[in-house]
Amino acid sequence: MSASDSSTTTDSSSGSTRRRSDATRGTILAAARERFAADGYARATIRAIARDARIDPSMVMRYFGSKEGLFAAAVTLDLRLPDLTRVPRDEVGRTLVTHFLRMWEENGELTAMLRVGVTDQAAAERLQGVFRDQLMPVARQVCPDAEQVPARAGLVAAQVLGVALTRYVLRLPPVVALHHEEVVAWVGPTVQRYLTAPSP
After folding, report:
1. CA torsion through residues 131, 78, 73, 133, sign
2. How far is 43 from 63, CA to CA, in rounded Å?
3. Tens digit of pLDDT for each residue in 147-200?
């Protein structure tokens, strides 16, 4: 066999292995999405996901390292943020807080991702990406100074994530006890200031 024939065979074998690897990864992710949706993060197990994917549990660990890593890879989060150009300027803070409260309570994956993101780097990076790619463009719609959009969006993220962490993950009783309208009344003006007030 010539060197060129050997190289062609090696390339073909490498391509075939890569395709099998991608297919296996895709099968695991599909099974994980269904299992996390059905059971939630806490009750879903690597063993159950592997059974659904019809592979050995060790393969799941080989590809994703841990349940946290698998969750971070499997879950796609769309915040479905409102178009703030269609909202009265003095209502953007209240509008965003109202939206986030609804999202946290309707989307169990979002709360699970926050819980996992506190301790898992992959999940933390996924949350960072979600807020960078989805919140910053919305903040850009109303911020008075383009160069401060990242800082302003970051402060909004800190505010809404803080509410979510204390209300839905840590479940601090005084925060849990607040009605939606009270949360919006307290937090909305702060988010409004972060987005629209002149730079301090």
Report:
1. negative
2. 21
3. 999 999 999 999 999 999 999 999 999 999 999 999 999 999 999 999 999 988
At 73, list the tokens: 């890879």
At residue 83, the pLDDT reads 95
Instruction: Give the pair of three-digit tokens for residue 18.
Output: 């890569």
Q: Is 145 left (phi over 0), alpha (psi -120 to 50) or beta?
A: beta
Cα 54–Cα 59–Cα 60 angle in degrees, nearest 5: 85
- The highest-level CATH class for domain 84-196 is mainly alpha
Distance CA 135, CA 1 (A): 57
Distance from C-alpha of 29 to C-alpha of 95, rounded to nearest angstrom: 34
56: how many CB neighbours lie within 10 A of its CB? 12
Q: Answer yes or no: CATH 1.10.10.60 is held by domain 3-74.
A: yes
Q: How far, in Å, are 8, 17, 21, 22 from residue 12 at the CA level?
A: 6, 9, 14, 15
Are 99 and 143 in contact by the 8 Å Cβ rule? The answer is no
How does the average pLDDT of the chain come out, rounded? 89
CA 119 remoteness from chain centre: 14
